[in-house]
Amino acid sequence: MAKGTKQKPPVAVEETPAAPEFDLNDSEWYLNRELTWLEFNQRVLHEAEDSRTPLLERLKFIAIVSSNLDEFFMKRIGGLKQQIGAGMRELTLDGRTPRQQVQECHLVIRSLEARKDQLFRQLCSLLEEKGIAVESYNELTAKEKKTLREHYYTNIFPLLTPQSIDPAHPFPFISNLSLNLLVTLRYPRAREVSLARVKVPVGLGTPRFIRVGKGDHFVCLEDVMMNNLDMLFPGMSIVSCEIFRVTRNANTERDEEEADDLMAMIESELKERKFAPIVRLEIGTGMDPVHRGRLAAELELDEENDVFEVPGLLALRDLFELAGLDYARLHDQPHYPIEHPQLQATRNIFHIIRDCGSILLQHPYESFSTSVERFLREAAIDPKVRGIKMTLYRTSIQGRIIDSLVLAAQNGKQVAVVVELKARFDEAANIRLAERMEEAGIHVTYGVVGLKTHCKVIMVVRQDYNGLRRYVHIGTGNYHAETARIYSDLGLLTCDQTIGQDVTELFNYLTTGFMAKRNYQKIVPAPRMLKKALLVGIEREIESHRQKGSGLIQFKMNALEDGDIVKALYRASQAGVKIDLVVRDTCRLRPGIPGLSENIRVMSVVGRFLEHSRLYYFRNGGADDFFIASADAMKRNLEARVEVLCPVESPELTKELRAIFDIHLSDQRSVWDMHPDGSYTQRMPTAESPHLGSHHLMIERASKRLRESLKQKKKTKPKT
C-alpha cells in the first residue's frame, strides 16, 4: 500500500444463512401411525361435543368413536402385542418399539375414554329435556318394574346360560366384545361364596336398550338382568353383580401360499379369531379388586396396563340404537342423493356413456343406486352384453350388486368376480357371497396369492354397432350401497378404449397371478407401478418448479403413512413446491417446519360424511394431471395390495375435481389444520367466511348441477 494512503475499513458482507440440513432418515421428522389415528378420533369426538351438531347426531359420533376404538384394539393393539410376543424390537419410522407404542396408545385411549364418558353423561341430560332418557332400573315405578320383569321372563330369560366359576368348572370362554355379568352368590346362611358368569345377549333381535312404557325412556338390558337375578339363581343370596367386557385380537392371518384351499383357510382363521388372545378387559367402576385380579389372571392380561375401568356404560357403540330414533329436529337435515344429470335419461346406460365418453360420479351426493347399481342391472339384462368382470372387497349381503351378477349369469352372460376373502371383518360375509355366486355359475377367483385385491373395478363387454366395446367403472370406494350413502367417494364410468384395454390386462393378472409383460397405458396398478408413479410425479413437479416456478401438488386420501412418499414430499417442499394434503386420519408427515416442510399444509375434514375418496393432483407445468385411486399413500396399499390409479382427463370432469379441492381448502367449518407436533386446530367461521362445511357445500353444488341440467333440458326440448 502506498505511503500516506488511508486503508479503508473492511466492508461487512452480510452472509445468507445456510439452509439447515435435514437427515430425512431421522425419526424426529415422522409422526407415529397409531397416535395420529387416535388423534383423528379426538376430532371425531369433537363432533359430539360441538353444540352446532344436532343432538342425536352427537350421540352417533360417540358410538362411532367407541366402535373405532374397539376395532383399534382388535387390529392395531392386537398386532403390536403379537410383535411384542415375538420379541420384535424393530423401530418404526418415528423411532418407537412395539411396547412403547402400546404404552403411549393406552395413555391416549384412557384420556379419550374419560372425555367420552363425561360427554355421554352431558348428552343424557340434554336428551332428557327432549323426552329421551336412559334410566336406572331402580328409578322405575313398581308397575314399570313389573312390566319389565314380565318382558324379561318371556323374551330374555330363555336366552341366558349362567356358568359357574369354581374348581370343578374351567373358566368359561368369553366371546369378543360381549358384555358379561360376574355374579357373586351364596346359599342362605352359608359363608362361602361362589362366582358365576352370565353373558348379556345383545344382538340378533335383542336390543341393548329396552323401552319402558310407550315413550322414549329406556333401561339397559344388563340393568334389567342385574335386578332380576333371582330367576337365574332361585333360592340363592346375591352378594354382588359386576360387569365386564373383553376385546380379542383380530390378527390371525396364515400363510395362504401353503393353503390348499383358501376358503377353508379363511374359515379356519375366523374360528381362530373367536378364540384369539384377549387384548383388553373393560370393567365397571368399583369392581372388587380380588375379582379384577382374578379376571385379569384368567384372561392372561397385565392387570395394571390391560384393564380399563369405565365409570359409565360399557360398549357405547350400542348407542347407534338410540341415535336412530325418529326425531327430525335432533338429526341433520335429510339428505337424498340426486340422480346424476347425465344419467337421468331412461335410454340405455351404455348409449349414454358412449355419447359422454366418461362420467364422473360423486357419492353420496349423487345416487349409487341410479349409477353403479343401474350399470350392473342393465348389463345383466342387456342382450348385447357378453360378459361382466368385477372386483369385490366389501359389499352389502342384501344389496342389488350380487342379485345383478347372479341374474347376468342366469341370462347366459360370462360373469367373473374376484372376491377378496381377507377383507377384515367381512371375511365370513364374503365367503357366503362367493358360495352363492359359484352356485349361480359365476366364475369366482380370490385374487393374487399374497396380495389383497383392494381395487374397485367393473368391466362390461358389450357387442356395439361397430364391434365389442368395453365399458368400465373405476371407483375409490367399495361396491356397498349402505356405505355409499355416508362415505364420500368418487367413481368414473367410461368407455375409453385404452382404459378398457388396461382393465382387461388387470383382470387377467388378478385371475392368473401372471405379472410379466403387462402393458398398462393409462391406469397405474399397485404393487408394481403405483408407488413409483407417485414418486416420479413428485420428482417431476420439483423439476418443473425449478424451471418454471408455481409447482403445486395436492393429495386427498384417508392416510399418509408410507415413508418414501413422505420423504419425497419433504424434498418437494424444500424445493419450493406448494403442497396441500387433505388427509382424513393417519399422517406421518409434520407440516410447517422451517426449511423442511414450510410449504406443506395438512388438513383433515371431519363432518357429516366419512371422507373416503382418494384424489391425486400434480400441476405439471400447467398440464393439470388429476387421478382418482383406490389406494391411500400407505405402505400396505402401495406394496402389498392390488390397487388402481386412474387418470381423469376430460376438462369438464377435472373442473369438478378442482372444485372438490377448492371447497375443502376454503372450508371454515369442518376442516382441522395440522401443526408440526401432530396436533390439530379446528377452523372457525368468521363474519365474512361461509358458515357451511364441505359436505353441506357439496350437497348444494350437486343440487345446483341438477337444477342447471333440468333448465338446459327444458330449453332444448322441442316444442310440440
From TrEMBL:
Polyphosphate kinase N-terminal domain span: 30-134
Keywords noted in UniProt: ATP-binding, Kinase, Magnesium, Metal-binding, Nucleotide-binding, Phosphoprotein, Transferase
A matching Pfam family: PP_kinase
Active site: H454
GO biological process: polyphosphate biosynthetic process
GO molecular function: ATP binding; metal ion binding; polyphosphate kinase activity
InterPro entries associated with the record: PP_kinase (IPR003414), PP_kinase_C_1 (IPR041108), PP_kinase_middle (IPR024953), PP_kinase_middle_dom_sf (IPR036830), PPK_C_dom2 (IPR025200), PPK_N_dom (IPR025198), PPK_N_dom_sf (IPR036832)
Protein name: Polyphosphate kinase
Keyword ATP-binding: yes
Cofactor: Mg(2+)
Family annotation (NCBIfam families): poly_P_kin, PRK05443.1-1, PRK05443.1-2, PRK05443.2-2
Name of the gene: ppk1
Assigned protein family: Belongs to the polyphosphate kinase 1 (PPK1) family.
The enzyme's E.C. designation: 2.7.4.1
Gene Ontology, cellular component aspect: polyphosphate kinase complex
Polyphosphate kinase middle domain span: 144-322
Domain of life: Bacteria
Binding locations of Mg(2+): R394, R424
